[in-house]
Design goal:
9 helices, globular, 4 strands, Glutaredoxin, Glutathione S-transferase Yfyf (Class Pi), Chain A, domain 2, alpha+beta
Length: 224
């Protein structure tokens, strides 16, 4: 199987992390999203959305990291995607929630407009409005994650067992650390991230984005 990816992409890291932890052999094909390779005809033929990751398994191609995680887990029989109907439904629910709420408003609405120049709003006023609006929305979802999804009694987002929903969500939340977020107001989130960061492959998978974060050192960001 081949994974078209870029190591700085938040969408790629969950698949990379899960594959590494589950010892799933993948042929990694770098797509340089910083030079626009994803818009060139060669890659457009692979994914007309111009996005990574893309999983290729023989003649079968799959986009969207949530679908890729489920496919990899099913193909390898991983317990991280349980067979029990209700347990699997809970994993699906959490993954949808991370995609539609956290990623949309925490990352795209709050973090990315600050750390990526191409996502900044065109004027200082519009940038400030966006960041403040994004912060308010992000704080609301982080409170839900802290108090309800995790709570004081859950080690992971679906209970006490690690699932592919944790791989997806933790990589999304950890993106906030690029802007200096420490999540001190959300102790259950901090504890959960600590457990995920203790995975043997976490550091290697996050080398590229950590390097990017280091390049931003000294800049001032709005944080939570």
């Amino acid at each position: 199987m081949k994974l078209y990816y870029h190591p700085a992409s938040t969408s790629c890291r969950p698949a990379m992390l899960f594959a590494a932890e589950a010892n799933i052999p993948l042929d990694y094909q770098l797509v340089d999203i910083f030079t626009g390779e994803q818009y060139k005809p060669a890659f457009e033929g692979i994914n007309p959305n111009h996005l990574v990751p893309v999983l290729e398994d023989g003649g079968f191609r799959l986009t969207e990291v949530s679908a890729i995680l489920k496919y990899l887990a099913d193909k390898t029989g991983s317990p991280a995607y349980p067979q029990d109907l209700q347990q699997r439904a809970r994993v699906n629910e959490r993954m949808d929630w991370f995609n539609t709420q956290i990623n949309r408003e925490f990352n795209y609405g709050f973090i990315y407009p600050q750390i990526f120049g191409f996502m900044k709003r065109p004027t200082e006023e519009s940038q400030n409005v966006q960041v403040q609006w994004g912060k308010e929305r992000a704080q609301g979802w982080l409170k839900v994650l802290n108090d309800n999804v995790l709570g004081p009694g859950s080690n992971y987002v679906c209970g006490d067992k690690l699932t592919i929903a944790d791989y997806l969500g933790a990589c999304m939340i950890a993106s906030g650390e690029v802007a200096g977020c420490q999540f001190s107001d959300y102790p259950n989130v901090c504890a959960w991230l600590g457990r995920m960061k203790a995975l043997p492959s976490w550091g290697k998978v996050h080398e590229a984005i950590n390097g990017y974060a280091a390049s931003l050192k000294g800049q001032s960001f709005v944080t939570v």
